[in-house]
Amino acid sequence: MPLTLATTAPGEPEIFASLQGEGVSAGRPCTFIRLSRCNLACLWCDTAYTWRFEGDNRPHRDGESFARQANQVTLDEADAAARIALLGQRRLVITGGEPLLQGAALARMIGHLPPMHIEIETNGTVAPHPALDPLVHQFNVSPKLAHSGNPADLALPPERLAAWAADPRAWFKFVIAEPDHVADVIALQRDHAIGGERIFLMPEGRDSETLRTRGRWLADICSHHGLNFTDRLHIHLWGDTRGT
């Protein structure tokens, strides 16, 4: 099975060199590959073009649907790897959508790559494919809280959270839009014994003004609870655009 990717323009797979904008690797140069399809539907998702295709009635605050043919493309694993290698970066960030839905194909793609640091960004609900798991150096796990609009039994499966908490490669990033959302993070931290040094809180927002406004009070909360703060560097630099 080939990989199913998002697009930057019709027919053009979303594979690009940039800086990591979020989390523990923020500011590092890397190549991104963005896969299509997701098993969750976040109300505030900034990549809804990876899953909210025409006919998909899952809610999103923008209410926009996307034509599948223009926003989704398939690519042979070897072809995807060749495009990644040509960009010359030492770090690859595999994002989505939910990349772990395509774990077997990702394992085959990585097998075609030169040695590089592999990061996977995941919503934390899907276990890594057995062929993929040993190839990954870092998991950026972003569990979705109640304000995402996803039911907890789907978005926060306890067995998967426990598995990520036990994996030293996993870092946790939570999207925060209001101060009271942090209580849910603290509860998950307590229930799964996750050290504060592994947790990043990130303001929800798709423009610099919103990020700065929420970042001011969120930074104080992080300091109070001994958690890390992460901004969204790419939004400040390039705005809410594809391929950045």
Automatic annotation (TrEMBL):
Listed cofactors: [4Fe-4S] cluster; Mg(2+); S-adenosyl-L-methionine
Binding site for Mg(2+): T47
PROSITE patterns according to UniProt: RADICAL_SAM (PS51918)
Catalytic activity: 6-carboxy-5,6,7,8-tetrahydropterin + H(+) = 7-carboxy-7-carbaguanine + NH4(+)
Residue ranges occupied by any Radical SAM core domain in the UniProt entry: 25-240
Family that this chain belongs to: Belongs to the radical SAM superfamily. 7-carboxy-7-deazaguanine synthase family.
PANTHER family from the UniProt entry: 7-CARBOXY-7-DEAZAGUANINE SYNTHASE (PTHR42836)
Stated name of the protein: 7-carboxy-7-deazaguanine synthase
Species in which this protein is naturally found: Novosphingobium album (ex Liu et al. 2023)
